[in-house]
């Protein structure tokens, strides 16, 4: 009888100890803060880019389990970006992912401490976001859609697709253009260039008014937050003026533009997850080089070509990665 009582007491003590350990573990799990990722975008939302989320999952990060999201969408109201960036800073998120290039200044001005990962930006060095691609310094790193001296390739493709092109307007920021190389290509191709530096939104209509009067018969659009923001207006102008145009991103072509040559943007959010993973594991943004795309995508919209009475040569069509019919 005494042995039975002693066994019962031991069992009771073990049960109490085990229960206490379980409660302590649960309490620690409840109080332990999981990393929070701030997502800042100028878009409407309400969902975070699925490619980015997929990239996180492949790296072992699962929303609601070992990471949390704080998403802020400006709904195309650019004046709201500073306020939304400040909200993410106040929430003390562990990293801010800037999904829109036009939102980077707001994040940059909001914090010099919280790591910032850029999903896409045209020229982060020229814009002053990082010191260099190899050594970003500061708290910003990520990806750029700048493929280097790509403007010359765009001009070559435009000339090959439309052999009658002889006077091309270059629309967009000119700060990062390799004019020496571009002008050498234009001379060898028999093409004259017309610079249309688009630095402010209110300049666009004036540029549209002056371009036709200069006997322009081709258009090359350079990537920037401003040109991307006014994508539909630029495409409409080119169509209305019957100008063969080549754009920097495939999204211009899917929206009705004639042709594009540039990085494949959908893969970039997934790659941004790699930067978040490294930062959450202790890496500093200043030690993570800004990454360029591995390859460019050539897209053609045959419907847009038909609308301006243009026939794309078969050999050019064969080189396209994507053809919209």
Order of helices and strands: HEHEHEHEEHEHEHEHHEHEHEHHE
In total, how many beta strands? 12
Global outline? elongated
**Model regions low in confidence, pLDDT < 50 over at least 5 residues:** 12-31
Mean pLDDT comes to 86
Read across the widest sheet, the strand sequence of neighbours is 7-6-8-9-10-11-12
Largest sheet: 7 strands, mixed
Q: What is the helix fraction of residues, given as a range? A: 40-55%
Number of helical segments with 4 or more residues: 13
Termini distance? Answer: 90 Å
Radius of gyration (Å):
26 Å
| Fraction in beta strands | 15-25%
Q: Could you state the oligomeric state of the chains shown?
A: single chain
Q: Output the structural class.
A: alpha/beta
Summarize the structure.
With 325 residues, the chain is of the alpha/beta class. The chain contains 13 helices and twelve strands.
What secondary-structure arrangement, pairings included, does this model have?
Elements: H1 2-31, E1 36-41, H2 50-58, E2 68-73, H3 81-90, E3 95-98, H4 104-110, E4 116-118, E5 140-142, H5 151-161, E6 167-171, H6 179-189, E7 192-196, H7 204-210, E8 218-221, H8 225-229, H9 231-240, E9 245-247, H10 250-254, E10 259-263, H11 267-280, E11 296-301, H12 302-307, H13 314-319, E12 322-324
Parallel strand pairs: 1-2, 1-3, 3-4, 4-5, 6-7, 6-8, 8-9, 9-10, 11-12
Antiparallel strand pairs: 10-11
């Amino acid at each position: 009888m005494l042995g039975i009582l002693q066994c019962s007491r031991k069992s009771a003590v073990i049960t109490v100890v085990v229960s206490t350990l379980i409660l302590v573990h649960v309490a620690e799990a409840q109080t332990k803060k999981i990393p929070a990722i701030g997502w800042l975008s100028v878009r409407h939302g309400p969902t975070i880019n699925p490619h980015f989320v997929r990239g996180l999952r492949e790296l072992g990060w699962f929303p609601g389990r070992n990471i949390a999201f704080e998403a802020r969408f400006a709904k195309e109201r650019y004046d709201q970006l500073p306020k939304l960036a400040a909200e993410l800073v106040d929430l003390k998120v562990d990293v801010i992912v800037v999904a829109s290039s036009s939102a980077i200044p707001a994040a940059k001005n909001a914090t010099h401490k919280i790591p910032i990962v850029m999903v896409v930006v045209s020229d982060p060095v020229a814009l002053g976001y990082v010191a260099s691609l190899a050594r970003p310094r500061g708290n910003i790193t990520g990806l750029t859609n700048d493929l280097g001296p790509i403007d010359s390739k765009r001009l070559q493709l435009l000339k090959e697709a439309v052999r009658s092109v002889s006077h091309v307007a270059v629309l967009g920021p000119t700060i990062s253009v390799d004019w020496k190389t571009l002008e050498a290509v234009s001379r060898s191709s028999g093409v004259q260039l017309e610079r249309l530096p688009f630095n402010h939104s209110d300049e666009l209509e004036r540029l549209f008014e002056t371009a036709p009067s200069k006997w322009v018969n081709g258009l090359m659009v350079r990537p920037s937050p401003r040109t991307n923001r006014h994508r539909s207006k630029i495409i409409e102008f080119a169509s209305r003026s019957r100008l063969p145009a080549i754009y920097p991103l495939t999204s211009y072509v899917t929206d009705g533009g004639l042709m594009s040559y540039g990085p494949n943007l959908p893969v970039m959010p997934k790659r941004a997850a790699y930067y978040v993973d490294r930062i959450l594991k202790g890496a500093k943004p200043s030690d993570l080089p800004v990454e360029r795309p591995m390859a460019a995508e050539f897209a053609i919209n045959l419907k847009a070509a038909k609308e301006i009475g243009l026939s794309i040569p078969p050999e050019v069509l064969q080189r396209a990665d994507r053809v919209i019919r």
